[in-house]
């Protein structure tokens, strides 16, 4: 067994050892159905932390000759398949994580030569009589092995698009990498040595003008997840089951994290759901990632009123997106539709099936989720419409052209999780969150009771009734404001 050629199953074992594991081995059943066919070229693209690497590690553990995985899989869904043992640990597997190679290279220019050298060295250990030192091409090596032994390869490439995204301005690296992939997978010869090719990343296959660089691959993405929709990300039923196990309010989880509908499935980001089950607090995930930082310059370009469209989507509106022109790279983004399509693939925007009947195509409507998880944070304005101070605050926001999402503080009162998060990220004492002049505060004699209550008890009390919460309430990034003081709002919001 090697690191990249015929690896062991330790990476997937780590996933199985995790506190929370959701069985996604049905993906293996799908792969077994297409082995050694023209459909055996799969590009499965999803946003960050959607379980892409888990899936790649799972496939490697199942197919690799370098592993003994029967015990590992026998009690999972794949273990009940008729073809379970037929394909179990029967293949030469090459498993490449391009992100790892990029990190461990001093220069991005060396990534492709580095991959070639390391994988060839391991292949020579497996087939020393076939692969002499004069063999310097990886596709040539695979072809020679097939010719001499009749054995085909399963090739799994994780983070396949990292060079497309992170080295978008480096044309030399881009061209060399695309040539490398073409050599591996395009043409007649690769069909002789490829049993299965599985690429996973964020972006679909890169386009070159009107032609795909690898048009023999079947693409599964946020625009068209097809039959793989339920295998990357958690389904709603899976999230419900986790909520029952870990005593979470599914309604609240759905409100925060129900971001995507792929076919008939509502899909949730596994990372945020698992973190919630473990840490018991709702977190804004997207705004704290490097991916969030990378899209801000694109939004600031404001193609064709892009900023306005995004604000509209955050507020619950929909916009039409022509997804056909996007070249599946960052360098050739030239209009609003390109940016919005990129945001769909990155996971910031969800495709809604409402008006278009679920057909994912040009003209598809898109919508940003109205919660922090949706990625583009907009200032939250919680208010009570009948409150004169709230009315003044709202007029002030409008007069200063400040965009916000309004929320009725009583009809949709802040939850314990929200209040805890706002309190922790702001610099206000907890007492500032209480409506000390309100009738409910006085009726419950909270002036005398609060000093003897813990912070958790106070937060849970606040969550019982929006009339207890100081209004208006502003939440934006790391800024939290309670009550309306024009001077303070001018200093901090303008």
What features would you describe in this structure?
By secondary structure, this protein is an alpha/beta fold. The protein has four domains: about 220 residues, Rossmann fold; about 50 residues, no CATH class; about 90 residues, no CATH class; about 110 residues, Glutaredoxin (3-Layer(aba) Sandwich). The chain contains 23 helices and 17 strands. It has a five-stranded parallel β-sheet with strand order 2-3-4-1-7. The chain has a four-stranded mixed β-sheet with strand order 15-14-16-17, covered by helices on one side. Strands 8-10-9 form a three-stranded antiparallel β-sheet. Strand 16 and strand 17 form a beta hairpin. Helix 1 packs across helix 3. The termini are far apart. About 5% of the residues have low confidence.
TL;DR?
The protein has four domains: about 10-225, Rossmann fold, CATH 3.40.50; about 235-285, no CATH class; about 290-375, no CATH class; about 380-494, Glutaredoxin (3-Layer(aba) Sandwich), CATH 3.40.30.10.
Keyphrases for this structure?
23 helices; 494 residues; 5-stranded parallel sheet; alpha/beta
Alpha carbon gap, first and last residue: 61 Å
Counted up, domains total 4
Mean pLDDT: 85
Overall shape: elongated
Helical stretch tally: 23
In helices, the fraction of residues equals 40-55%
Largest sheet: 5 strands, parallel
| CATH hierarchy: architecture of the largest domain | 3-Layer(aba) Sandwich
Please state how the strands of the largest beta sheet are arranged side by side: 2-3-4-1-7
CATH fold topology of the largest domain: Rossmann fold
- What's the CATH C level of the largest domain? Alpha Beta
Oligomer: single chain
- Radius of gyration based on Cα positions: 26 Å
The low-confidence parts are 353-377
